[in-house]
Write a structure and sequence with these properties.
Blueprint lengths: L5 E3 L2 E2 L5 E7 L6 E6 L8 E8 L2 E10 L6 H12 L3 E5 L5 E7 L5 E3 L3 E10 L5 E2 L49
Antiparallel strand pairs: 1-2, 1-7, 3-6, 4-5, 6-10, 7-8, 8-10, 8-11, 9-10
Length: 179
């Protein structure tokens, strides 16, 4: 596997000189299932609501401290960056982001000039979002605009239509299809 980075809360890991190696990537988050034991019956009854639990992704990160600061000071800066919830984007998935937060306290292995730590992000909801799209059109008469998405789960969509012109919009029709 090759090293890559990620952006969290609008800051790329390269800003801190952090190099990343995906430790575990999840193909699909675990389905939410509740086993119900029925006395006198072998096995269990499995209740499912169609949802998924939180997604958990782990990354091994390493860095070389910049000149003029201690490893302890530098790791506090990294900890401040990672300490809140925010948008997480992997370099390997451009155009997609997750709402994420750190799960637990990342253990730090530090030396005189460098350090290494493992991050476990939890994504809740467990699906990637697409970055917003903006489409500008102008003209008179009938205009057809297609918005394509690359999602794999049914999710709500928000469409904002702004009329910046002097003409009133009439007979607006929104159609959708699911593959």
């Amino acid at each position: 596997m090759t090293s890559s980075g990620f952006s969290f809360r609008g800051i790329h890991s390269g800003t801190y000189g952090v190099f990343c190696q995906p430790l575990s990537r999840v193909l699909i988050p675990e389905r939410r299932r509740s086993p119900i034991v029925i006395p006198g019956r072998s096995g269990v009854y499995r209740q499912e609501d169609g949802g998924h639990d939180v997604r958990r992704e782990s990354i091994t990160c390493s860095f070389v401290k910049p000149p003029g600061v201690t490893v302890a000071h530098f790791t506090r800066q990294i900890a401040g960056w990672l300490s809140e919830e925010g948008e997480l984007t992997f370099d390997s998935e451009p155009g997609k982001y997750y709402r994420a937060y750190l799960a637990g306290a990342p253990p730090l292995e530090k030396h005189l000039l460098y350090g290494q730590f493992e991050l476990a992000f939890e994504m809740n909801p467990p699906y990637a979002y697409e970055l917003p799209q903006s489409i500008n059109t102008s003209g008179a008469g009938q205009i057809t605009v297609s918005v394509k998405t690359d999602g794999t789960a049914r999710t709500p969509v928000r469409i904002v239509i702004r009329n910046n012109g002097p003409t009133t919009i009439r007979n607006l029709v929104l159609l959708h299809s699911t593959v």
